[in-house]
Design a protein that fits this description.
23 strands; 23% strand; globular; Nucleotidyltransferase, domain 5; seven-stranded mixed beta sheet; six-stranded mixed beta sheet; alpha+beta; 15 helices
C-alpha cells in the first residue's frame, strides 16, 4: 500500500490538491482559481465542470511535483465549500445549471416567507439550522421553479443533486458513487439532526423530491475508487470544510473551539454527542460521524472576510494584492472613527438578514485608504466577536482559547484584533492548511494509517496572541460597531 494521502480541497475561490506524507506533512500541492459569476447583485455561481476539471488538473500537478505515481497513494480525501450545490444529468454527467454558491442570497424572499410561519421554529429545532438563503432545499426549489429543464429532468428521474463533495465523488468514481458525507448533509440544512437522515417532512413541505438526494455516509468510509490518475485510488474520506478544520485542530472534546478565516470566517465549537438547539442565531451541526457515533458542533459564520479584502483590491483598488492590507492598515493607529459593515451579500450569524447591505460610516475629510483598510480588518474581528457572544451565552461557556486557521490567519494584525475584541487567547498552528489536513486524516483513519487519539497531536502551535487592548476602549468600540450594524439591517427594503 502507498504511504501518501491525496486531498482535494475545493474552496469558494479555487481548488487545491495536496499530498500528505505518512507524518501528515505536505509533500506537494497545486492550486488553481476558478471563475465566480455574479449575474445579479444577490447571486453567486460557479461552473461545476470547471471546478471538476481544475480539481483533476491540480491533482495531477501535485502528484507530479511530489515525484509520485498513483501506486504511492494509499487513499484520497475530499473537503469542500459547504451549501454550494449542483444538479446534473445522471446520464450525461453534465450540470443542468451553474452551481449556486453558499454566499448566494437569491432565496431571500422564500426565507422571509418561511420566517412568518411555524415552520421557522420547526426547522431550527429539527435540522439545527436557522432557515437561511443557503438552505439547499430552497436552492433546489429555485432551480425547479426557474430552470424548466431541471424540473423536467427531475420529473423523469434523470437528475441528481449534490453538494460539492457529492459532485466530485460522482465524477471521480465515473458515476458509480452518489453519496454525501454526514457533515455536508447536515450543513445543507436538510437533515433531521436526531437521526442523521434526510428530513423528508421538510423536503415535502418545500416541494423537493427525495429521490435526487445522495446516500449519507460517515466522514471516514468507502466512497468508491478513482482511476483518473493511473491505478485505482480508494476515496475514503469526505468532510465539509469547517468540520474538517475542527477535526484537524484536534478539537475532539466538548468545549474546544476553532475559527477558520478564509473567504468567510467560521467559528465552530465541539459540543459532544448530545445537542441542544441554540436560539440566538447560531447553527447546530453534525461535526462528523465515525462508525455509529455522531459528534455535534455549534457554529456561526461571517460570510465576508477574505472577500471583503478582495473587494478592497478588485472593487476599490486601494491595494494591489490581498496581503498588502496588513501594512496599509498598520500605518495608522486606529480607524479614525470609521466602521465598515461588510454586508456585501447580506449578514449571516447572528443577524441572518439577507436584506442588509454593506456600509461605511464615520467617514470625514480626514478619512484615508488606510483607515478604510483598518476598518475592514476590525469588522472581521467584530463579526467573530458577535458570534462568540452568542456561543458563550447559548452553550453556557467562557471561551479562553480560539484555535485559528485559514489563509487570512497569516495576517498578524487581524489575529491580534481577534484576541483583543474577543478577549481570548488565540493560537495559530504551524500550518494553516487545517481544512485539507482534516480530510487527509479522515481518509487515513479508514485505511488505518492513523488512530483517532493520534489526531490531537498532528498540529503544533506556532504562535499565541494575547489580548492587549484597554478593556474600556474594547467595550466602546464594540458598542459603536453594534450601532453601525443596526443601521445596515433590512436596508434594501427601504
Amino acid at each position: 500500500m502507498g504511504k501518501y494521502v491525496l486531498v482535494i480541497d475545493e474552496g469558494t475561490t479555487g481548488t487545491r490538491a495536496l499530498i500528505f506524507d505518512s507524518d501528515f506533512n505536505i509533500a506537494a500541492q497545486a492550486y488553481q482559481e476558478f471563475t465566480q459569476y455574479t449575474p445579479q447583485e444577490n447571486m453567486v455561481e460557479h461552473d461545476a465542470m470547471e471546478i471538476y476539471a481544475k480539481s483533476v488538473g491540480v491533482c495531477r500537478e501535485a502528484i507530479e511535483k511530489a515525484g509520485l505515481s498513483s501506486d504511492d497513494i494509499a487513499c484520497m480525501g475530499i473537503t469542500n465549500q459547504r451549501n454550494t450545490c449542483v444538479i446534473w444529468d445522471k446520464n450525461t454527467g453534465e450540470p443542468l445549471y451553474n452551481a449556486i454558491v453558499w454566499q448566494d442570497s437569491r432565496t431571500g424572499p422564500a426565507v422571509d416567507a418561511i420566517k412568518q410561519t411555524e415552520w421557522a421554529e420547526k426547522i431550527l429545532q429539527e435540522t439545527g439550522k436557522v432557515i437561511a438563503p443557503h438552505n439547499n432545499a430552497l436552492i433546489i426549489k429555485w432551480y425547479m421553479d426557474n430552470v424548466p429543464e431541471i424540473k423536467e429532468k427531475i420529473d423523469r428521474g434523470e437528475a441528481l443533486y449534490g453538494t460539492m463533495d457529492t459532485w466530485m465523488i460522482w465524477k471521480l468514481s465515473g458515476g458509480k458513487t452518489h453519496a454525501v458525507s454526514c457533515s455536508n448533509a447536515s450543513s445543507s440544512g436538510c437533515i433531521d439532526l436526531r437521526t442523521g437522515e434526510w428530513h423528508k417532512e421538510f423536503l415535502d413541505y418545500v416541494g423537493v423530491p427525495m429521490d435526487i438526494f445522495p446516500v449519507i455516509q460517515s466522514e471516514s468510509s468507502d466512497y468508491g475508487t478513482t482511476d483518473l490518475f493511473g491505478s485505482a485510488i480508494p476515496i475514503t474520506g469526505a468532510v465539509a470544510d469547517q468540520q474538517s478544520a475542527l477535526f484537524a485542530q484536534g478539537c475532539l472534546e466538548p468545549g474546544t473551539m476553532k475559527c477558520t478565516n478564509g473567504t468567510g470566517s467560521f467559528m465552530d465549537i465541539n459540543i459532544g454527542s448530545k445537542f441542544n438547539i441554540a436560539s440566538g442565531g447560531v447553527d447546530n451541526l453534525i461535526a462528523w460521524k465515525l462508525g455509529d457515533t455522531i459528534t455535534y458542533a455549534v457554529e456561526g459564520f461571517v460570510s465576508v472576510t477574505g472577500s471583503a479584502v478582495q473587494w478592497l483590491r478588485d472593487g476599490l483598488k486601494i491595494i494591489r494584492k490581498s496581503s498588502d492590507i496588513e501594512a496599509l492598515a498598520a500605518s495608522v493607529p486606529d480607524t479614525n472613527g470609521v466602521y465598515f459593515v461588510p454586508a456585501l451579500v447580506g449578514l449571516t450569524t447572528p443577524h441572518n438578514d439577507p436584506f442588509a447591505r454593506g456600509m461605511l460610516i464615520g467617514i470625514t475629510r480626514g478619512t484615508t485608504e488606510a483607515h478604510i483598510a483598518r476598518a475592514t480588518l476590525e469588522c472581521i474581528a467584530f463579526g467573530i466577536k458577535d458570534i462568540l457572544d452568542v456561543v458563550e451565552r447559548e452553550c453556557n461557556v467562557k471561551i479562553e482559547e480560539i484555535k485559528i486557521d485559514g489563509g487570512a490567519s497569516e495576517n498578524n494584525l487581524l489575529v491580534q484584533m481577534l484576541a483583543d475584541y474577543c478577549d481570548a487567547r488565540v493560537s495559530r498552528p504551524d500550518t494553516l492548511e487545517a481544512t485539507s489536513l482534516g480530510a487527509a486524516l479522515m481518509a487515513a483513519l479508514y485505511v488505518n494509517m492513523i488512530g483517532l487519539e493520534d489526531v490531537k497531536n498532528v498540529l503544533n502551535t506556532d504562535q499565541v496572541f494575547e489580548p492587549q487592548i484597554d478593556p474600556v476602549l474594547r467595550d466602546t468600540r464594540s458598542l459603536e460597531w453594534k450601532e453601525a450594524v443596526k443601521r445596515s439591517l433590512n436596508w434594501i427594503r427601504h
